[in-house]
Amino acid sequence: MQIESFIRKVVGVGKKAVSWSARAIKRVVKAIAPIIAWIGKVLLSGKRWIVNLVAKVTGAM
User: With 80 as the cut, is the pLDDT of residue 45 above it?
Assistant: First the structure.
């Protein structure tokens, strides 16, 4: 009986962790998506100095 309750606890904690991490990943993606879209627009517009600036910023990270 003790083993069963332990397994149930582990499964419960595992489910919570999975749902929490999924939520965290969704938030991160939502936060990053506009930045990626903006960089994409800048690159497509072909403005050389902005492209260089982005390259410098990403290189500095």
Answer: no
